[in-house]
Specification:
Rossmann fold, 11 helices, globular, binds adenosine-5'-triphosphate, binds iron/sulfur cluster, binds magnesium ion
Length: 347
């Protein structure tokens, strides 16, 4: 069996907010990532989907080693990244690259785009002439005129800047590209071009993608597997098509239903906002993180945290409905479950 390229194990990360000028005291603590584990295989595309504030970017940044977890392990190609030496980590930095949401702000306005693309290669010791020549070939790979390397970011459109950001991320020949909302700042017409470019590049370079998005539709188009995140936890994982056709977790079902009842180009963002409204009702005690909103809530959901468990070959769900003795199936989400506690509905 193929070894995973990336293994994430029980990652936790909280942010604290402090107040007071002389005596700093913690006034709030947010669990941004709360016990996340998953594997990603070479050449695979895994989608990380969830509403705003669900912890997607925090998890992506931990994997890219831009921030440290409070707890947990990140393994890359069989090595524990959280424990490798500095020198070894320099090598891994080539292997894992990130593309961020806002292309213009991620490029240095004072550098030509050729210099921006060549920068990571220079950092890894490549001679300047060779690095600039490679920048030209990367411009071509991402569908831009290679002779435009002497121009500056402001001379390009948003979509072109994202192509340049992708070229820069590809420069060190990474094995994993983390794409954090790579098209959500772009016009809908340009989004499809960038998504197709990413698919084309993957076909040519056999690179793995961790694709972060609000948008279940885009994730279905781009990703082999999907992880659904809510409040720092993965509540459902499985093949993207299966999840889209028949969601198994009440949260995923709600997320999809909200999307399907909305029209227009903004529907995905609206759905994310709607889910965020729902998040305000959540309980901050133990038990299931979705108990405050779930229409199927059972008495023990209040204090017993459901673990992410396989319900069939490829699908895993963190929900007490799927306890072995119940024989519950995803299609049963259509029916009201006997024993469910009615939930306070939003007015
Ligand atoms: N630097 C920070 N300081 C304090 N809290 C933070 C910080 N970064 C993130 N958070 C909080 O952590 C939680 C997760 O944030 P994160 O940015 O990872 O979510 P996200 O799923 O990427 O959201 P979005 O879809 O809006 O980008 C949120 O509640 C957020 O407010
Ligand atoms: S049934 Fe219980 S465990 Fe499942 S999502 Fe609802 S509240 Fe959570
Ligand atoms: Mg984010």
């Amino acid at each position: 069996m193929t070894r995973p390229l990336l293994s994430v194990r029980d990652i936790h990360r909280s942010y604290t907010t402090t107040s007071g000028l002389i005596r700093r005291r913690v006034v709030a603590s947010t669990k941004a990532v709360d016990g996340v584990s998953f594997d990603l295989f070479p050449g695979e595309t895994v989608g990380l989907v969830g509403g705003s504030g669900s912890g997607k970017s925090t998890l992506a940044r931990i994997i890219a080693r831009l921030i440290e977890p409070d707890q947990g392990e990140v393994w890359f190609d069989g090595e524990l990244l959280t424990e490798v030496s500095r020198d070894r980590m320099r090598l891994f930095r080539r292997d894992i690259q990130v593309v961020f949401q806002d292309p213009l702000h991620s490029l240095n306005p004072r550098r030509t785009v050729g210099e921006s693309i060549a920068r990571p290669l220079l950092n890894f010791g490549m001679p300047k002439r060779a690095a600039l020549a490679k920048a030209e070939s990367l411009m071509e790979l991402v569908g831009l005129d290679p002779s435009a390397t002497s121009r500056y970011p402001h001379e390009f459109s948003g979509g072109q800047c994202q192509r340049i950001a992708i070229a820069r991320a590809l420069a060190p020949e990474p094995r994993l590209l983390i794409l954090d909302e790579p098209v959500s700042a772009l016009d809908v017409s340009v989004q499809a071009q960038i998504l197709n470019l990413l698919r084309e590049i993957q076909g040519k370079l056999d690179i793995a993608y961790l694709f972060v998005s609000h948008d279940l539709g885009i994730v279905r188009y781009m990703c082999d597997r999907t992880l659904v995140m809510y409040r720092g936890q993965i509540l459902e994982s499985g093949l993207s098509n299966d999840i889209h056709k028949l969601p198994a977790h009440p949260f995923t079902r709600n997320f999809l239903d909200t999307i399907l009842t909305m029209d227009g180009d903004e529907r995905w963002l609206d759905a994310a906002a709607a889910i965020e409204d729902v998040e305000e009702e959540r309980s901050d005690g133990g038990g299931c993180v979705y108990q405050g909103t779930c229409a199927h809530r059972l008495p023990h959901c209040r204090d017993k945290t459901p673990l992410l468990k396989s319900i069939d070959g490829s699908r895993s769900v963190a929900c007490h409905l799927y306890a072995e003795e119940t024989g519950f199936r995803p299609s049963d989400l259509n029916a009201k479950y006997e024993g469910a506690i009615p939930c306070k509905s939003k007015s």
